[in-house]
Each structure stands twice: as C-alpha cells, then as structure tokens.
Specification:
Elements (H helix, E strand, L loop, with lengths): L1 H10 L5 H9 L4 H24 L4
Amino acid sequence: MLDYVVQLTRDATRIAPSHHTRLRAAGFDDRGILQITLIASWFNYINRVADALGVGR
C-alpha cells in the first residue's frame, strides 16, 4: 500500500493496472483501493494548498 501511495504522490500518471493487482494480492478490494487513493490524494492536495499559502511558516 505504501509503495502505491508513494507512486501516487510522485507521479500518478504512472499508476498502472499492475499497481492495483498488487494491492488486491495484499488483500485490498476495489473499495479499499478507492479509499487509499482518495485519502492519499486528499492529503497531497491539502498539503500543496497549505504550502502555497505559506501555512506554518
């Protein structure tokens, strides 16, 4: 799961069906994969917004 999240964070355009296959092999179903994707994407989004606005500086 963490390898998937790292790839999603670094370059989501390179996520391939094989990433989902590996997640399924680790026991995640489609709903779990969706939840992982949504949560990681939201954190990436909100952190970029905070960085752009100088939050915490």
